[in-house]
Amino acid sequence: MAKAYERIADDLRQRIRAGEYKAGERLPAETKLVDEYRKSLPTVRQALGVLQAEGLIEKRHGRGNVVRKPRRLVTRSNERHRWEKNRARQSLEERRQTGATERDTGLTVSDLVFSAEFNEMEADEDLARAFGVPVGTRLLERVYRTRYREEAAPFNVARSRLLYDVAAANPALLDPGNEPWPGGTMNQLHTIGIEVDRVVERITARPPTFEEMEELDLTPGVAVMVLRKTCVDTDGRVVEVADVTLPGDRTELEFVTPLERW
Q: Of 160, 157, 122, whose CA–CA distance to 139 is shortest?
């Protein structure tokens, strides 16, 4: 049986979705909600906390609880990797037309603002184990952020690492000025003779750090998902390890598993 605060949260959630309370509008004062639902102030605040954790409302100084403008939803499917690999050998003109973020969001290239930061780093124990190389091996880390032009926060923060000496076979891969690279990492690896055989993804959820809350514009209570992506080439060698931090209030993960017919 649903608890009182859950019933209040569900009623307010439905009213928001029905448009009774629109984006940017203030919800009734907490004291009025106490009278309306005939429950205690702590119960009402617990219900509002649920909606805040879902990213539906936010508490603004001097205004109270305000309905948030829905942010662009990102649907990330495991089918994206086959799609990316199929594009890796297409012409430059074809690859320039769209990318994985556009596929995940339904937006166009002109809708997006992209940034890339490149750094040299040494593999710590975690990354050395993931790549199967000694601790201290030189890596190229690329940090990617892409956002919708109408929003301030990026869809996610992606930290991709390549073995530096492997990437250096094509000096163009070391220059952040060449980003966004048409065709993404799959095409980049293709330029140095590497074909990705499989992609392994592991996903965990946790509370965000303070820095992640600010950068991803998260309301208190919203979790982040951390996706560890490992790309393995046709020789069984790990060629990319990426950690992607995904905001839980705007990311939908979709898994499609084709099954063999009997």
A: 122
Domain boundaries, the chain: 4-67, 74-254
- Closest Cα to residue 97, out of 110, 80, 116? 110
Query: pLDDT tens, 243-257?
Result: 999 999 899 999 999
Q: Token pair for residue 69?
A: 């403008």
Topology annotation, domain 74-254: Chorismate lyase (3.40.1410)
Within 8 A by CB and 6+ apart from 26, the residues are 63, 64, 65, 66, 67
pLDDT at 61: 82
Residues 53/220, Cβ–Cβ less than 8 Å: yes
CB 239 within 8 A of CB 229: no
Q: What is the mean pLDDT of residues 200-229?
A: 95
Residues contacting residue 62 through CB under 8 Å, at least 6 positions apart: none
pTM, two decimal places: 0.84
CATH architecture of 4-67: Orthogonal Bundle (1.10)
Single out the residue of 169, 165, 159, 163 nearest to residue 123, CA to CA.
Answer: 163
pLDDT for residue 166: 98
CA 160 vs CA 51, 118, 130, 206: distances in Å: 33, 10, 13, 20
pLDDT at residue 1 greater than cutoff 80:
no
228 pairs with which residues across the strands? 202, 243
Which pair of tokens denotes residue 116? 């890339």
pLDDT (0 to 100) of residue 148: 96
